[in-house]
Amino acid sequence: MSDVNGGTDVASSDPAADAAAVFDLLIGLVRAQVLRGLAALRIADHLSGGAMTAEEVAEREGSHPQATYRLMRAASSMGMLSHEGDYRFGLTGRGRLLRSEVPGSMRSLVLAQTGQALWQSWALFPEAVREGGNQTEKALGMDIFEYYAKPENAAEAALFAQAMGDLSGLVTQGAVAAVSTAGVSTVVDVGGSNGDFVLALMEADPQLTGQVLDLPHAVESARGEAEKRGLSGRFSAVAGDFFVEVPPADLYLVKTILHDWDDAKCTTILRRCRSAMNEGGRALVVEMVVGEIGRPDLATLSDMAMLATTNGMERDLDEFDALFAASGWRRSKTYPVGGGYFGLELVAV
Fold first, then answer.
1. Backbone angles phi, psi at 347, to 5 degrees
2. Cα 319 to the center of its chain, rounded Å
3. Which residues of the chain, if any, have pLDDT below 70?
4. Which of 184, 249, 261, 322 has its CA 20 to 30 A from that of 129?
5. Could you give the angle at the alpha carbon of 138 between the alpha carbons of 133 and 139, nearest 5°?
6. 104 lies in a domain?
């Protein structure tokens, strides 16, 4: 298959440089938790009005002044904060991405990815490789989706849903611009969480009627988002199980769903869409696509996250095509939509 990601070859024959490079990779776990600290303490929100000292931030946040200073100093070394002199720190472009409830925010994504539920699963990653499957049940006592569905984990579930919505924002604009809705009247966002994708498509095409199908704990956020955008009149959110049944539609949106599941489950999801679709219907799958082996590739790293926390995987185009063929679809178009993601348009066969 062709390379869809590209990259730069990395080679070195200098042992000291190699050791430094490996250490830099290892320290990534520290960087991730620095991001978590910035997000949890709302450092970016505190600095949104201008540069401040760590003591001023700590007073607002109720945190330890010296520890807050050490966090902000580390964040400045990572390019998240700028040092303005006199121990005052400001926001960089990267730092602004950790502000709350602003377009393009990645705050919820940082908190969800570095939080207790997923972090515990990562601690058992070697066992996932040895056994060929995630160890989330061993870490949490249940799979990740059952965990989020429990009432006592509602706050974490809401954070995860917001994170997925924010991540969706990285690709939704490109996907909406690329897909044609000619001849489409009804769109179903399969596993659509807060409905960001289908709602953006509805904003772009006022003739569309949209629907989200997701688990019961997710649909209320979708209804709220539709109301906030003024789209409730032509939108609905349905609690259901996409392994069992999906509503009829002219266009199915299946965004970042397939990578959560194994081939058999993916085939079931796609077959349910194929069986329920209206005549002449289509599907749009949005996922990362694994590129040429040995090239720098975000999709292969995301694949490790899938191995650590779900029963899914990231796939290359040949693997996607095998899924589509097994479920009654054929890939008709492929295009980048941003953030390392690709739109794979499907037609029925």
1. -125, 155
2. 21
3. 1-12
4. 322
5. 105
6. no
